[in-house]
Specification:
Helix content is 3%, strand content 56%. With 179 residues, it is mainly beta.
Length: 179
Protein backbone atom coordinates (compact mmCIF):
# COMPACT_ATOMS: atom_id res chain seq x y z
CA UNK A 1 0.00 0.00 0.00
CA UNK A 2 1.23 3.49 -0.86
CA UNK A 3 0.12 6.78 0.68
CA UNK A 4 1.39 9.81 -1.24
CA UNK A 5 0.95 12.35 1.58
CA UNK A 6 0.60 12.12 5.36
CA UNK A 7 0.42 15.14 7.63
CA UNK A 8 0.33 14.87 11.41
CA UNK A 9 -2.33 16.72 13.38
CA UNK A 10 -1.99 20.51 13.38
CA UNK A 11 -3.23 20.59 16.96
CA UNK A 12 -1.83 18.65 19.88
CA UNK A 13 -2.64 15.01 19.39
CA UNK A 14 -1.00 11.83 18.25
CA UNK A 15 -0.83 9.50 15.29
CA UNK A 16 0.45 5.93 15.36
CA UNK A 17 1.33 4.51 11.94
CA UNK A 18 1.41 0.72 12.19
CA UNK A 19 1.33 -2.24 9.82
CA UNK A 20 3.23 -2.07 6.56
CA UNK A 21 3.33 0.19 3.54
CA UNK A 22 5.00 3.27 2.10
CA UNK A 23 4.38 6.97 2.70
CA UNK A 24 5.96 9.03 -0.06
CA UNK A 25 5.81 12.38 1.80
CA UNK A 26 5.27 12.75 5.53
CA UNK A 27 5.08 16.00 7.49
CA UNK A 28 4.75 16.72 11.18
CA UNK A 29 3.28 20.05 12.23
CA UNK A 30 2.52 19.42 15.88
CA UNK A 31 1.66 16.63 18.27
CA UNK A 32 3.35 13.24 18.30
CA UNK A 33 3.73 10.75 15.45
CA UNK A 34 5.11 7.24 15.89
CA UNK A 35 6.06 5.26 12.80
CA UNK A 36 6.36 1.47 13.17
CA UNK A 37 9.17 -0.51 11.54
CA UNK A 38 6.89 -1.79 8.76
CA UNK A 39 6.15 1.71 7.47
CA UNK A 40 8.61 3.26 5.01
CA UNK A 41 8.65 7.06 4.69
CA UNK A 42 10.54 8.30 1.63
CA UNK A 43 10.58 12.05 2.46
CA UNK A 44 10.03 13.30 6.00
CA UNK A 45 9.70 16.91 7.14
CA UNK A 46 9.42 17.72 10.85
CA UNK A 47 8.48 21.38 11.26
CA UNK A 48 6.94 20.95 14.69
CA UNK A 49 5.89 18.27 17.10
CA UNK A 50 7.69 15.00 17.74
CA UNK A 51 8.30 12.11 15.33
CA UNK A 52 9.74 8.74 16.28
CA UNK A 53 10.89 6.32 13.58
CA UNK A 54 10.91 2.93 15.28
CA UNK A 55 12.65 -0.24 14.32
CA UNK A 56 16.09 -0.47 12.86
CA UNK A 57 14.65 -3.07 10.48
CA UNK A 58 12.36 -0.47 8.90
CA UNK A 59 13.11 1.07 5.52
CA UNK A 60 15.19 4.20 5.96
CA UNK A 61 13.91 7.51 4.58
CA UNK A 62 15.73 9.19 1.69
CA UNK A 63 15.24 12.82 2.76
CA UNK A 64 14.73 14.14 6.29
CA UNK A 65 14.37 17.83 7.24
CA UNK A 66 13.93 18.96 10.84
CA UNK A 67 13.48 22.58 11.88
CA UNK A 68 11.44 25.02 13.93
CA UNK A 69 10.35 23.30 17.11
CA UNK A 70 10.51 19.86 15.50
CA UNK A 71 11.97 16.83 17.29
CA UNK A 72 12.93 13.57 15.57
CA UNK A 73 14.18 10.39 17.22
CA UNK A 74 15.22 7.86 14.63
CA UNK A 75 16.26 4.25 15.02
CA UNK A 76 16.97 4.14 11.27
CA UNK A 77 19.72 5.56 9.11
CA UNK A 78 19.20 7.45 5.86
CA UNK A 79 18.80 5.52 2.60
CA UNK A 80 21.70 5.51 0.14
CA UNK A 81 22.22 8.84 -1.57
CA UNK A 82 19.86 10.54 0.86
CA UNK A 83 20.28 13.39 3.30
CA UNK A 84 19.33 14.62 6.76
CA UNK A 85 19.09 18.39 7.22
CA UNK A 86 18.76 20.09 10.61
CA UNK A 87 17.71 23.73 10.88
CA UNK A 88 17.84 26.10 13.87
CA UNK A 89 15.40 25.23 16.61
CA UNK A 90 15.10 21.61 15.51
CA UNK A 91 16.41 18.64 17.47
CA UNK A 92 17.42 15.21 16.12
CA UNK A 93 18.43 12.13 18.12
CA UNK A 94 20.04 9.43 15.96
CA UNK A 95 20.17 5.95 17.51
CA UNK A 96 20.43 3.76 14.41
CA UNK A 97 22.96 1.12 15.43
CA UNK A 98 25.33 0.75 12.45
CA UNK A 99 23.16 2.36 9.74
CA UNK A 100 24.88 4.98 7.58
CA UNK A 101 23.93 8.62 7.05
CA UNK A 102 25.14 9.55 3.52
CA UNK A 103 24.80 13.34 3.93
CA UNK A 104 24.22 15.38 7.08
CA UNK A 105 23.57 19.14 6.71
CA UNK A 106 23.40 21.24 9.87
CA UNK A 107 22.24 24.88 9.89
CA UNK A 108 21.92 25.13 13.66
CA UNK A 109 19.67 23.19 15.97
CA UNK A 110 20.70 20.35 18.23
CA UNK A 111 22.02 16.98 17.07
CA UNK A 112 22.58 14.00 19.35
CA UNK A 113 24.18 10.89 17.88
CA UNK A 114 23.77 8.01 20.32
CA UNK A 115 25.09 5.54 17.76
CA UNK A 116 25.26 5.08 14.01
CA UNK A 117 27.58 3.78 11.33
CA UNK A 118 29.59 6.07 9.11
CA UNK A 119 28.48 9.60 8.27
CA UNK A 120 29.76 9.92 4.71
CA UNK A 121 29.59 13.71 4.29
CA UNK A 122 28.77 16.24 6.99
CA UNK A 123 28.28 19.91 6.11
CA UNK A 124 28.18 22.01 9.26
CA UNK A 125 27.06 25.43 7.99
CA UNK A 126 26.06 27.21 11.18
CA UNK A 127 25.30 26.77 14.83
CA UNK A 128 27.21 25.63 17.87
CA UNK A 129 29.20 22.42 17.33
CA UNK A 130 29.30 21.85 21.09
CA UNK A 131 25.54 21.15 20.86
CA UNK A 132 26.33 17.96 18.92
CA UNK A 133 26.18 15.12 21.44
CA UNK A 134 28.08 11.89 20.77
CA UNK A 135 27.38 8.58 22.51
CA UNK A 136 29.71 6.07 20.79
CA UNK A 137 32.64 6.13 18.34
CA UNK A 138 31.61 7.43 14.89
CA UNK A 139 33.55 7.87 11.67
CA UNK A 140 33.00 10.83 9.35
CA UNK A 141 34.39 10.24 5.86
CA UNK A 142 34.35 13.97 5.02
CA UNK A 143 33.35 16.91 7.18
CA UNK A 144 33.08 20.45 5.83
CA UNK A 145 32.93 23.25 8.39
CA UNK A 146 31.96 26.85 7.60
CA UNK A 147 33.44 29.87 9.46
CA UNK A 148 30.08 30.65 11.12
CA UNK A 149 30.23 27.46 13.26
CA UNK A 150 31.03 28.07 16.92
CA UNK A 151 33.15 25.59 18.95
CA UNK A 152 34.18 23.64 15.84
CA UNK A 153 37.63 22.86 17.22
CA UNK A 154 36.14 21.32 20.36
CA UNK A 155 33.92 19.08 18.22
CA UNK A 156 36.77 18.04 15.91
CA UNK A 157 38.86 16.95 18.90
CA UNK A 158 36.10 14.85 20.47
CA UNK A 159 37.69 11.54 21.58
CA UNK A 160 34.89 9.40 20.09
CA UNK A 161 35.07 10.89 16.58
CA UNK A 162 37.26 9.92 13.63
CA UNK A 163 37.52 12.12 10.53
CA UNK A 164 39.04 10.87 7.26
CA UNK A 165 38.95 14.32 5.63
CA UNK A 166 38.33 17.63 7.38
CA UNK A 167 37.84 20.83 5.36
CA UNK A 168 37.57 24.34 6.81
CA UNK A 169 35.74 26.74 4.57
CA UNK A 170 37.22 30.21 4.34
CA UNK A 171 35.15 33.38 4.06
CA UNK A 172 36.20 33.45 0.37
CA UNK A 173 34.23 30.23 -0.14
CA UNK A 174 37.16 27.89 -0.77
CA UNK A 175 37.88 24.80 1.33
CA UNK A 176 41.19 24.30 3.06
CA UNK A 177 41.94 20.68 3.98
CA UNK A 178 43.30 20.29 7.49
CA UNK A 179 44.44 16.69 7.17
Amino acid sequence: DVVNWFQSPAAKGSAHLVGSGTITNGESLDGRTEVAAGIAITNLRVGGGEVRLDGAAGTSPTTVEVGGGGYLRTLRGIAGGGSMTLFGGGRVVVDCDTDTIPTLNMYGGRLEIVQCGTITTANIYDGDASRIGIGRPITFTTINIWPTVRNASKFLHHPLLTFSTTNWRLDSGEFVPSN
